[in-house]
Structure formats: C-alpha cells, structure tokens
Specification:
The chain is mainly α. It has one domain. It contains ten helices and no strands. It is globular and about 50 Å long.
Length: 225
C-alpha cells in the first residue's frame, strides 16, 4: 500500500503541476503566450515583468494552490491506503517533486513550462510552515542585497534540504510525527533531487549572472523576436 500511495502521489503531483498558471492567466487575460515574452519562462517573475501585477498575482495564487492541493491529496489518500502511522511527509515530498516536474514539463502545454521555484516553495506551506518561513526569509534577504530574483531562488533552493534536516532533527515535528534518522535522511535526499531540478532549470540564469547580463527586479520584459 505504501508503494501504491507513492505512485498516487507522483501522479497527482504531475497532473496538478502541469496546470501552468502563468500560461493560462496571460492567455485568458492578454490573449498572448507568456513563453514568447521576456525570458520566455512561464513563471511568476517573467509574468510580472511582461504583463504586470494583476497577471502576476493570479499566477502566484495558482502556482501556490496547485502545489498545496497536490500535497494535501497525496497525504489524504496515503493516510487512507497506508494508515495514520504512514510517513505522510514522504508522500508530500514525492507529490512536490512531480508537481515541479509537471510545472517544468507540463502535460497540457506542450511540455514547455516554468522553472518550478514557486511550486517547490508552496509544498512547505503544508509540509512544514517553519521551513517555508525560513526559505522565504533567505530568499528575501538575498533579493534585497542582490536585486536578482534568480540568484535568490537558487540560494533558497540549495538551503532547502539543510533547513529541513535541522527542522526535523532538532525541532519537534509540527504534525506530531516522530521521524527516525533514516526517514529524515530520506526526506532530505528527495529534497536534494527537487533542488537539483530547480537549480538545473536556472542554468541559463546562472550563465547570465556570470556574464553580468541577468535582469534585476523591476526591469521590464519585451517580446521575443
């Protein structure tokens, strides 16, 4: 039943992750394809730069919601199939990884989507709000100092497994689950996979950061010619 729960979590994560809020919002409100503008990325930052705060807000709410729904469903079904003592955090991690995979390679949008940062962050609103707040704090601090959204996202993503280990090893779990060291290491290993995926999707940003050509927050995006 645990294997079945993991498979369900992966399926739900991918299907919900494939619903790209940026593509849908811009298509419905502006009759354009966000992937033809700015950096070409179907995500929150590019939507804000190219189409303003209204579209960006809807994108934010949509991408947060789909990650949270995927995790909640995976944990609910996992609890039904595997029992209340099952590792619900594990099911949530799997759903999160596949939600990011769906966001990056969306089934409904020609397998060309965004970079998965917002979806990755959203799952911690369900899994552990303490980790969510710490990651947001790291992101905000780096953004204030550097003015680069991409750099802030990369650094917060890299910190995610380490913050999670500290939260689960040194603090009492907020859901009152007792995790063994083996479980904690498994959770962190899965989050490392998630982090590698997100950082890899930022490879073009990393190159632009090296070249000094990366856009800072507040700069406008233009249509790709």
């Amino acid at each position: 039943m645990i294997i079945l729960s993991c498979l369900f979590s992966a399926l739900m994560g991918y299907l919900f992750g494939s619903i790209n809020s940026a593509i849908l919002t811009v298509k419905l409100l502006k009759h354009e394809d966000i992937r033809n503008f700015g950096s070409g990325n179907a995500g929150l930052t590019n939507t804000l730069r190219c189409f303003g705060k209204g579209c960006a807000l809807l994108t934010l709410l949509g991408d947060l919601s789909k990650g949270m729904i995927a995790v909640l469903l995976s944990q609910f079904v996992g609890k039904l199939l595997s029992g209340a003592d099952a590792d619900l955090y594990l099911f949530g991690c799997i759903a999160g990884i596949f939600a990011i995979l769906g966001h990056v390679f969306p089934l409904y949008h020609g397998f060309k989507g965004g970079k998965g940062v917002l979806v990755g962050v959203s799952i911690f609103l369900i899994l552990d709000w303490r980790v969510f707040l710490i990651l947001i704090g790291i992101f905000s601090l780096v953004l204030i100092i550097s003015k680069y959204v991409s750099l802030s996202s990369i650094i917060a993503t890299i910190c995610c497994p380490f913050v999670t280990f500290a939260a689960q090893y040194f603090w009492k779990d907020i859901h009152h689950q007792e995790f063994t060291l083996g479980q904690i290491l498994l959770h962190c290993a899965l989050l490392c996979v998630m982090a590698v995926m997100i950082v890899y999707m930022h490879r073009s940003n990393i190159q632009r950061l090296r070249n000094g050509t990366e856009s800072k927050i507040g700069q406008k995006g233009k249509k790709i010619q």
